[in-house]
Amino acid sequence: MSDHLTIVNHPLVQHKLTLMREKSTSTAVFRQLLREISHLLAYEVTRDLPMTTTNIDTPLVEMDAPTLKGKKLALISILRAGNGLLDGVMDLIPSARVGFVGLYRDEETLKPVQYYYKVPGEMGSRVVIAVDPMLATGNSSAAAIDLLKESGATDIRFLCLLASPEGVALMKERHPDVPIITAALDERLNELGYILPGLGDAGDRMFGTK
Ligand code: URA
To answer: According to DSSP H, which parts of the chain are helical?
Structure first.
């Protein structure tokens, strides 16, 4: 992947996203929509995976048939909202290895601090897809990518539902080699770091917390 930002402008993605933005959408429906939309986003983020062929026997003949090449993918959920996207991506890539990155923001330094980190081995030989629904300030996303690179990852893609121009700019500055795939690029952040028009707090909406 080379283009830094891909907006998945598919009618189904855009329709489902509108339903997710609406504040009266229930937790159960929000979750279901997120799962459906993540299938469509997963399709897009894996569009250029390397392929090879394998020799198989159909009931009629032998053939060299296409298969994915290389080590199993690594899906990395940036906690906690990443888990909502992760489920749907795993539906499409069930054999992927899965890792988790937990970061919180230190209220004094405002810098992301790691509280959990567990990723698959051999990260340098895998296509790595980091998932987090909201690319807002970009601080935690960029810090998570730093950690994945420290673990040896070289082919990383960042998959989100909504991105802000501020978050995209920060990621481009810190990680120009990491393409971003998103359903929409929204207008801006508000003073609290929420994406506008956005959909609110993605974690709260998918887990029913407040
Ligand atoms: N995280 C969210 O869940 N929502 C936003 O709007 C920004 C960050």
So the answer is: 11-21, 27-45, 82-92, 139-150, 165-174, 202-207
For residue 97, the enclosing domain spans 5-49+69-207
**In this structure, is residue 59 part of a structural domain?**
no
Residue 199 CA: nearest ligand 1 atom is 6
133 known member of a binding site: yes
Is 28 contained in some domain? yes
Number of domains in the chain: 1
Tens digit of each residue's pLDDT (9 = 90 or more) over 21-43: 999 999 999 999 999 999 999 99
Asked if residue 200 belongs to a known ligand binding site, the reply is yes
Rounded distance from Cα 151 to ligand 1 centre (Å): 27
Q: Tell me what ipTM this predicted complex has.
A: 0.95
Task: Convert the pLDDT of each residue in 123-176 to its tens digit.
Answer: 999 999 999 999 999 999 999 999 999 999 999 999 999 999 999 999 999 999
Tell me if 56 is assigned to some domain.
Answer: no
Q: Please give the Cα distance from 160 to 187 (Å, whole number).
A: 16
Asked if 124 and 149 touch (Cβ cutoff 8 Å), the reply is no
Q: What is the pLDDT of residues 69-93, one digit of tens each?
A: 999 999 999 999 999 999 999 999 9
Query: ω into residue 105 within 30 of 0, thus cis?
Result: no
- Ligand-binding site membership of 120 (annotated): no
Question: Residues lining ligand 1, CB < 6 A?
Answer: 81, 134, 136, 193-195, 198, 201-203
What's 188's domain CATH number?
3.40.50.2020
On whether residue 79 sits in a domain, the answer given is yes
Tell me the whole-structure pTM to 2 decimals: 0.95
154 CA to centre of ligand 1 in angstroms:
27
Ligand 1 pocket test, pick from 162, 164, 194 with the greatest ligand atom count within 8 Å of Cβ, gives 194
